[in-house]
């Protein structure tokens, strides 16, 4: 599998893209690494990895702590603009659920960002072990579900096999087409180049008929370049991706994907 864009590639550049999926519904991809399901009133982001620097320092790596995490400052305008019924975190809210004051403050600040009438729903990921216990100790009223089934979508982290029956799923309504798995976990990225010598790896959305993979919202996530290795989870490994939307600063670049077997 490979995906590249050179200076003469035909791409679409804009801040948001309204995309019609295989189930007949429209979604909004936002270059700020967020997804909107308009009919369902959902704003979704994935892989925040709050507390990353503190976890690495605890393990002995001297990560810089001078620059504050930008998650809140980037989420706030998205919440103000879209005013969602639900903010859904598609896993790995934290890098590790440890009781350090800085992480507790980040989690409390996240809750305070929510506009009136917006519910925060978390689909825990592989980094969120013991998250429920940490949230309980902080007294934060957050909803955790392994899978959120709503409209024509299944929202989950993507680190486990594709759900068949999800007892914890909520808000299910009959869809006009197949369910679309909306996941994180993979931290997808594509490499963009000038066709000569300069290139850069940037986060992206990946689209298949049955799957939509979100870019990591965390600024710490380096990104896993599409086509350079196998996907981490079964859901992404089983998908045949036809398009990528690269998040290039404030713009989206739409890229067709080629597959080499």
Q: In terms of topology, how is this protein built?
A:
Blueprint: E1 4-5, E2 13-14, E3 16-20, E4 26-30, E5 34-37, E6 42-45, H1 52-58, H2 71-82, E7 86-89, H3 101-113, E8 119-122, H4 131-138, E9 143-144, E10 148-150, E11 153-155, E12 180-183, E13 188-193, E14 199-208, E15 211-213, E16 224-225, H5 234-237, E17 241-248, E18 251-256
Helix pairs in contact: 2-3
Counting DSSP E segments of at least 2 residues, the number of strands comes to 18
Strand content: 25-35%
Shape: globular
Count of folded domains: 1
Helix-strand sequence: EEEEEEHHEHEHEEEEEEEEHEE
Integer average pLDDT: 82
Task: State the helix count.
Answer: 5
Q: Specify the helix fraction band.
A: 10-25%
Uncertain segments: 1-12, 166-175
Oligomer: single chain
**Rg from alpha-carbon coordinates:** 18 Å
Distance between the termini: 7 Å
The helix-and-strand class reads alpha/beta
The largest sheet is: 11 strands, mixed
Describe this structure in a few short sentences.
The protein is an alpha/beta fold and 261 residues long. 17% of the residues lie in helices and 30% in strands. The protein is globular.
């Amino acid at each position: 599998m490979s995906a590249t864009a050179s200076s003469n590639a035909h791409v679409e550049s804009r801040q948001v893209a309204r995309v019609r999926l295989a189930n007949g519904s429209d979604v909004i991809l936002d270059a700020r690494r967020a997804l909107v399901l308009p009919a369902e009133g959902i704003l979704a982001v994935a892989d925040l990895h709050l507390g990353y620097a503190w976890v690495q320092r605890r393990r002995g790596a001297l990560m810089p702590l001078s620059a504050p995490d930008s998650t809140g400052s980037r989420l706030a305008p998205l919440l103000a603009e879209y005013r969602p019924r639900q903010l859904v975190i598609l896993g790995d809210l934290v890098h590790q659920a440890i009781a350090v004051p800085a992480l507790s403050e980040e989690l409390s600040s996240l809750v305070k960002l929510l506009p009136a009438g917006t519910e925060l729903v978390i689909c825990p990921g592989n980094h969120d072990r013991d998250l429920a216990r940490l949230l309980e100790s902080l007294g934060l009223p957050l909803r955790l579900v392994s899978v959120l089934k709503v409209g024509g979508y299944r929202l989950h982290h993507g680190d486990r096999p594709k759900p068949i029956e999800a007892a914890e799923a909520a808000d299910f309504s009959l869809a006009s087409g197949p369910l679309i798995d909306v996941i994180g976990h993979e931290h997808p990225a594509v490499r963009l180049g000038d066709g000569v010598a300069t290139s850069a790896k940037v986060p992206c959305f990946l689209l298949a008929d049955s799957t939509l993979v979100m870019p990591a919202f965390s600024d710490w996530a380096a990104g896993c370049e599409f086509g350079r290795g196998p996907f981490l989870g079964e859901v992404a490994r089983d998908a045949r991706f036809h398009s990528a939307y690269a998040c290039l600063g404030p713009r989206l670049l739409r890229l067709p994907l080629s597959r080499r077997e």
